[in-house]
Amino acid sequence: MKTVDHFNFENKKALIRVDFNVPLDDQLQITDDTRIEAAKPTILKILEDGGAAILMSHLGRPKAQEDEFSMKHICNRVSEIIGVEVIFVANCVGEEAKQAAANLEMGQILLLENLRYHKEETQGDVAFAKALSELGDIYVNDAFGTAHRAHASTTIIAQFFPEKKCFGKLLSKEIESLDRVLNHSEKPVLAILGGAKVSSKITVIENILDKVDALIIGGGMAYTFIKAQGGKVGDSICEDDKMELALDILKMAEQKNVTVHLPIDVLAADDFSETANTKTVAIHEIPDGWQGLDAGPGSVQIFDAVVQNAKTILWNGPLGVFEMTPFSGATIALGNSIAQATKNGAFSLVGGGDSVAAVKQFGFEDKVSYVSTGGGAMLEMLEGKTLPGIAAILE
Ligand code: AMP
């Protein structure tokens, strides 16, 4: 796997696909700059070698060229974080971009305007990719969040750098961490899958059954399994059309010697609301009018024992509706369990939008081995797919 560490960037202009798709508030202020911080090591390596960095990214989903999606809103923050003044150019291709790239001196950073101001980006247009490629000498992909998309700047562009393309430090770390969990893991391997729906994670579960020794299924997904087994789930979220599939998954797990743990009890509420009345009930006996919104204390205890026994842990999806304080308990407890297991030597990887949000919100970020930044990209890797952005560098 070729990374930036295999190149000397002295007198070279690196064209780096970063993921600066950061959240902005109404005042166009950045509310979370994690993604900019994450790109810093790659950019610094290039500058320290004596090279220059040309940064390209998308921001949001512009339909035309709406000002609110302009990269100019994040330019200052990039300067602050990297510690080098960033030059901004109001297009990513064309004369203006070419001139700006040509004028760029070693040690400088150029930030291109939003790639998605051009529909050719998401279309994977070859001519557009070629125009981008002409701006730099070496292509670096450091954007895991878009590695599952065959877009011009993430995939198509790589063909114009047959010998001069590599992964940035962030993307290579993502690939290594997922590879460590999926293919080079120390046993026992445990996957914890939570979140709202079974339907969005079926392919992940099917693929992961070949890789793990134990599986915890929690969150809203659990109720489809419990109902399929004949339990009463009251008004809990449940996908009736996926019940047969749930039973197939349990059968498949048994055949593959994977131990599946479902919650045994839940914190049920009489309304989907923070102020609802709550009570702890057995998961098979949730009364009508009540819905399970978090795993209960008995489940938390069992899950903790399973987590402490694991040497490799993958966590995707919360165990309850953690956005509402009364139903965040099991997700926090799980975070604590994983932190403890990590302290004792387990390798833990947390990924997927909502679990990352939970890990950050509850302060576990530094207590797990790795937090993956790409939601969709990570899920596709867990599904066993080859991501086009990764394949394009490896080819
Ligand atoms: P996902 O995007 O599939 O990982 O789902 C995450 C969402 O699942 C979060 O917003 C949680 O609030 C939600 N969730 C977790 N447990 C439950 C539950 N028991 N009932 C309803 N929603 C849940």
Count of DSSP-assigned helices: 14
SSE class: alpha/beta
Helicity level: 25-40%
Classify the beta-strand content into a percent band: 15-25%
Which sheet architecture does the biggest sheet show?
A: 6 strands, parallel
| CATH class identity of the largest domain | Alpha Beta
CATH superfamily of the largest domain: Phosphoglycerate kinase, N-terminal domain
The low-confidence runs, each spanning 5 or more residues with pLDDT under 50, are none
What is the total tally of β strands? Answer: 17
CATH fold call of the largest domain: Rossmann fold
The backbone outline, from C-alpha atoms, is elongated
Ions and ligands: adenosine monophosphate
CATH architecture of the largest domain: 3-Layer(aba) Sandwich
In angstroms, what is the radius of gyration?
Answer: 23 Å
Structurally, how many domains make up the residues? 2
Average of the residue pLDDT scores: 96
Q: Give the spatial strand order of the biggest sheet.
A: 3-4-2-1-5-6
Cα distance spanning the termini: 10 Å
Structure characterization notes:
- With 395 residues, the chain is of the alpha/beta class.
- The protein has 2 domains: 169 residues, Rossmann fold (3-Layer(aba) Sandwich); 198 residues, Rossmann fold, CATH 3.40.50.
- It is built from 14 helices and 17 strands.
- The strands form 4 sheets. The chain has a 6-stranded parallel beta sheet with strand order 3-4-2-1-5-6, with helices on both faces. A 6-stranded parallel beta sheet has the order 10-8-7-15-16-17, with helices on both faces.
- α1 crosses α2 and α8 packs across α9.
- The longest helix is centred in the first third of the chain and has 16 residues.
- It starts with 12 loop residues before the first strand and ends with a helix.
- The mean pLDDT is 96.
- The site of adenosine monophosphate has 16 residues, from β14.
